[in-house]
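HUMAN: Please help interpret these tokens:
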Amino acid sequence: METAASDLAGEDWNDAAADRGLTSDDIAADARDDAGLAERTPAAGKPKIGDSRPAPVLAPTDDAPAAKTGRRRRRGGRGRNKGGGGAATAGSTNNRDDVVHADLGVGDTYALEELDEEALARRRGRTRKGRPAGRYLMCVHVRPDGHTHIALLEGRVLVEHEVATAERDADLSIDGNIYLGRVQNVLPGMEAAFIDIGTPKNGVLYRGDVAYDPDEVEEKQPRIERLLKNGQSVVVQVTKNPIGAKGARLTQEVSLAGRFVVMVPGQPTTYGISKRLPDDERKRLRRVLEDLRPPDAGLIVRTAAEGATAEELERDVRRLRDQWEQISALAARSKPARLLYQEPTLSLRLLREEFTKEYRGVIIDDRALFEEAHAYVEAIAPELADRVEFYDEAEEGIALFEKHHVHEQLLKALDRKVWLPSGGSIVIERTEALTVVDVNTGKNVGKSNLEETVFRNNLEAADEVARHLRLRDIGGIIVIDFIDMEIRANREALMRAFRDALARDKTRTQVFDVSELGLVEMTRKRVSEGLIESVSAICPECTGRGYLIDEALLEDLK
């Protein structure tokens, strides 16, 4: 939830892949900014992969059957679950009987009693009046049609909302999946190639996302037609779902994410530790990882690794290596246009990537999903298992989203006009090229003078604009028309407040100062189709234009 909303969301690489044709240097810079890495040695000519991919798992076998939902936690266990991914998604042309599914790590338990009291207290987080306390609350509502709504509340304010598609729409929600694809067409003029991955639309692989050995090519930056040929088989990972007429965005730089670390196969020079961790913890983790670093893969340490023992980190790395071996073996015996690895449901993925002590709770109104989520959390973070709760709507007498005022906040987020506390307003208009935000004083008449009134109104608008960009998941180019201010110090204070508000967003943003025309230009990574698009359809009458042509007025002009 990019995607952030938690310490993990703020530092992980949910948006490391570019949504437009950026260079490898651009992608590498994006990844470093998003992950907040202390150090990372670049591989020559290769883009750097983000930390957004949940780790796959070994397919169930006779020797290692899939884990059962809701199994009890074992103390001090060292086994590795080789299933736990659920059934393969229906609706694709691929044969998915032996697809590698996401590893939820239910078999990888550890003993809390081995930790000292200080470490245990730090992991359990704060409590208030006997109840868990935290900044965030996640509410998960499962609809009868299979769609899942996931709302993230900061305090009582809705800050993020995602809709997980039903199984029948699984070909539209493939972010993180790994495929054995076939090169359909190489376009030198676009520096891109279309890859058949077995979905209705071919994926797009840009030159900056192509993996190659620099020793095997003479050029420093070889052209894409030198690296890929029509009909060639390639292993690719989806970095962005297909949106509209565009196919999925692909990369050959696969990354496998565990609970504590992310492994990047084939890039041993990739190494980093989140800057969000304290300096002393970073030093400790660096010493531990020196003995764990694989010789043929890179490692990136998540914020969730704070306080993790050497045994936990070792299990995480070992599991990721086993998973990559399984994926490689499956790719070697499969034909192209084949799914190799499938992501878990969005709900479980968010728990793995974002659930920390900063969450005061995760409330789920579906019994099956609750059992699965609780078993997972009990395995990887048993000290937080009591924060995963089942919500019985029949017993409570009120819907989950209605109780926490999610529904009314969601409806307001779909309006083009948003009212500010002082009486001002912002108007959000989306176009094909960019999104425009207009700030108005509206009913805000102030108390002292015009400059002070405008300044206070703009400060309110800055915070609200940042929240709605995150809530509506608006990406691409964004232009904000704040109300003009004469005093330069006020403009600078506004930009500081706006950047601080954007800092809570996990998705990477870039903001420029107020222009000569009084406009603030910015970009935000487009990682999904957006809130409005996920719950709406184009009007069949006006085809999305917002108006109808009166044909009668044009008849005599033929």
User: Anything to note?
Assistant: Confidence is low (pLDDT under 50) at residues 1-95. The longest helix spans residues 310-332. The radius of gyration is 24 Å.
